[in-house]
Amino acid sequence: MVDTRYHVAAIGNAIVDVLVHADDGMLERLGVAKGMMTLIGAEDAERIYAGLPPGIECSGGSAANTVVGVASLGGRAAYVGKVKDDQLGAVFGHDLRSAGVAFATRAAADGPSTARCFVLVTPDAQRTMLTYLGACIELTPDDVEEAVIAAAAVTYMEGYLYDPPLAKRAFLKAAEIAHKAGRMVSLSLSDPFCVDRHRDAFLDLVANHVDILFANEAELTALFRAADFDEALRAVRGHCRVAAITRGAQGSVVVAGDDVIVVGADPVPAVVDTTGAGDLYAAGFLYGFTHGRDLATSAMLGGIAAGEVIGHFGARPDRNLAELALARLGPSPFAPVA
Amino acid sequence: MVDTRYHVAAIGNAIVDVLVHADDGMLERLGVAKGMMTLIGAEDAERIYAGLPPGIECSGGSAANTVVGVASLGGRAAYVGKVKDDQLGAVFGHDLRSAGVAFATRAAADGPSTARCFVLVTPDAQRTMLTYLGACIELTPDDVEEAVIAAAAVTYMEGYLYDPPLAKRAFLKAAEIAHKAGRMVSLSLSDPFCVDRHRDAFLDLVANHVDILFANEAELTALFRAADFDEALRAVRGHCRVAAITRGAQGSVVVAGDDVIVVGADPVPAVVDTTGAGDLYAAGFLYGFTHGRDLATSAMLGGIAAGEVIGHFGARPDRNLAELALARLGPSPFAPVA
C-alpha cells in the first residue's frame, strides 16, 4: 500500500456561512422548513439577505467542516471544493489552510460568486439553512487530484455535492481512484430533502461505492423509504461496511456486519447552535477509524467533536479537539493501533 | 429648531473586522503593541492574514459600532463612511441597515477594497488591532449629507477618521453644518497612538469644535501630555462642554463645567473580548444624553452597553440593549425628559 499522506480527503460544496439569529416567524415568512437546507438562486439570495438581521460570516460547507475537525484532532486532511477568486473565496481558503487542511482546488476566475449559506439559528438551537451554490456549480472531475485521493485512507463526500450538476462526476471519479488505490470511500447523506432529491443515486452509491455511510435517523429513514428507524437500520445492514447513524441527544448507532454498537451522546452543558453537529461527528469518527481505533471509540470521538460544536455559535470547533478528546478519553485514542 | 430626525449621526472608517484568537507570542512576532491599533498597507494585510489562524468576519468600525448601539437602545441613528462596492462592502452595509441605522454613503466603484481590521483577541480579553484602511481613504467632504447632519442632535466622529487624508475635511464640514443648525458635535479619541499621530489637530478640535469628548485615561493623558490622569482631567475642564472618560473596570468619570460625576462599571460576569467597549460606552452615553437624561444616567447607560459587548466575542451587541437597560435601570432612561 502506498504511503497514507492524508487520513481523510473530502470533497464538498465550498461555502461561507452567514449566521443570524432568527425566530419561527422569520422561517414562516421565508416559507422554509426548520432544520432543513433549502437551495436558493442568486436573486433570491439578494432578496432574502436584505430582510435578514445583522450576521457574522464564518467559513462553512459540510465536508469542509469535517476536515477542519479531523485536523483539529491531529489528523492529516485535504479538501477539494470550488470557490470563486473573490473576497469570500479568499476567506474560505484562508480558514481552511490555516486550520491545517491541504486545499489546492483552483478558484474560478469568473462565473458566479463564492457560495453563501444563510444559517438561521432559532432559540431552540436548531439551524435552518438557505444555500446559494454560486461557484460550487463549477466543480468538475478535473478538480479531483489523483495524487491526493490515492494518498488518503478515506475519501469522504457530502450528499449535498449531488446538487450542483457536475460535482457528482467528480465524486465518482474520486471513488474510483480511491478504490483502485485500496482506500475507502465514505458518504454523508447531508439532509432528508437532499436524500429525496437524489434517492436513486444515493442508493446506488451506498450499494456499490460507499464503505462508510454517515446519516441521521431522518436521512436513513428517507433513503430506504422505511416506516421507522428500526426498519431503516435493517435495510442498511450489509449495504456498506460501516454505517454510523447519529440520533441527536440519544448519541449514535454504528452498524458493521453483524455488530450493532450503541454509544450515548457526549454531555453538553447548553446546546446553543446545532450547525455542524453531523459534520463534526463524522470528523471524530473518521479520525478514530483511520487511526485504527475500534468502532465504539470512533463513535465516542464523533460524539465529543459534535458536542463541542453544538455548544457555541458556528459550525467549526472553537477549541482544540485533540486536547478535548484527551481530557475526555485519555491518551489511547491518539495512539494508532500497532 | 428643525426636527430631530436622528439622535446621533456618526462619521467613521467603515471596516469589516476579522476576529481571531491570538496569544502574546503572535503579537510579538507581528511586532505590534497590545491593546493598540496599528495601520497596515495592502501588502502587509495579505502577508499578515496568511499567518493568522481561522477567523470570523463581523462588521466593525468604531463609530459604526456606536450607532448600532444607539439603534439597539431604541435611538434613531445615521452613519457616513466609505466601503467599496465589493462583497465585504455589501456585508458592512447590510449589517448596518438591518440594525436600523440609516446609511446612504455611496460605495466606491473602484480603488482599494473595503477596509479590514484584524482583531487579535488574547486570553486576557485584550484586543490588538491591525487595520488596512482600503476604501476609507476615498471618503471626502462630498460624502457628508447636509440634511442628515443638520437633522441629528449630535454628530459623532471617531479620532481614527484623521488617519485617511481627506476624511478630516469631511468631519470639519459636518461640524460646521451641525453647529450652524444648533446641534452638538462629539469626538472619540480612539487610541493613544492615534492621539500621538494627530495631537495638534485633536487639541484644536477639542478647543474649538467639540461639545462632547469621549476618551479613556490613556488617550486623555496622551492628548495633554499630562503626567497623570488627574492632571489630564484638570486640563480637559472647560475645554469642552462635556468630557466622558472611561476607566475600564473602574467605570467612568464625566466632567462638565464644575461637575465631576463618577460612575462605577456595570458588573460583567466574565470579560471575553474588550473590542468595542469604548464604542458602546459612547452609544449608551449619547443615547441618554440625546434623550434628556442627566449625565450620571447617561454614563450608567454607557456602562451597561459596554458591559454587554465585552461579555462576548465581537464589537457589536448580541442582545437588545433597550431590554437590557430596562432590566437594569427601569423605564426612566427611555422616557425623554419633558
What report would you give on this structure?
- 2 copies of one chain form a homodimer.
- By secondary structure, chain A is of the alpha/beta class.
- Chain A has one domain (6-12, 61-101, 138-334): Ribokinase (UDP-N-acetylmuramoyl-L-alanine:D-glutamate ligase), CATH 3.40.1190.
- The first copy, chain A, contains 13 helices and 14 strands.
- A 9-stranded mixed β-sheet of chain A has the order 6-5-1-9-10-11-12-13-14, with helices on both faces. A 5-stranded mixed β-sheet of chain A has the order 3-8-7-2-4.
- In chain A, strand 9, helix 6 and strand 10 form a beta-alpha-beta unit.
- The first copy, chain A, is globular, with a radius of gyration of 18 Å.
- Chain A starts with 5 loop residues before the first strand and ends in a 9-residue tail after the last helix.
- The model of chain A has no long low-confidence stretch (mean pLDDT 95).
- The A-B interface holds A 49-50, 52-59, 68, 86-88, 91, 94-96, 98-99, 113-114, 314, 316 and B 49-50, 52-59, 68, 86-88, 91, 94-96, 98-99, 113-114, 314, 316.
Keywords:
homodimer; 338 residues; alpha/beta; UDP-N-acetylmuramoyl-L-alanine:D-glutamate ligase; nine-stranded mixed sheet; five-stranded mixed sheet; 13 helices
Residue windows where pLDDT falls under 50 for at least 5 positions of chain A: none
Q: What top-tier CATH class of chain A fits best?
A: Alpha Beta
Q: Count the E strands of chain A.
A: 14
Please provide the ordered H/E string of secondary-structure elements of chain A: EEHEHEHEHEEEHEHEHHEHHEEEHHH
Largest sheet of chain A: 9 strands, mixed
Q: What helical percentage do the residues of chain A reach? A: 25-40%
What is the number of domains of chain A? 1
Structural class of chain A: alpha/beta
- Strand proportion of chain A, as a percent range, falls in 15-25%
Strand neighbour order, sheet with most strands of chain A: 6-5-1-9-10-11-12-13-14
Mean pLDDT of chain A: 95
Structural shape of chain A: globular
Distance between the termini of chain A: 16 Å
Assembly classification: homodimer
Specify Rg of chain A, calculated over alpha carbons.
18 Å
CATH topology of chain A: UDP-N-acetylmuramoyl-L-alanine:D-glutamate ligase
Largest inter-chain contact set? A-B, 24 and 24 residues
- The number of helical elements of chain A comes to 13
CATH H-level superfamily title of chain A: Ribokinase
| CATH 2nd-level architecture of chain A | 3-Layer(aba) Sandwich
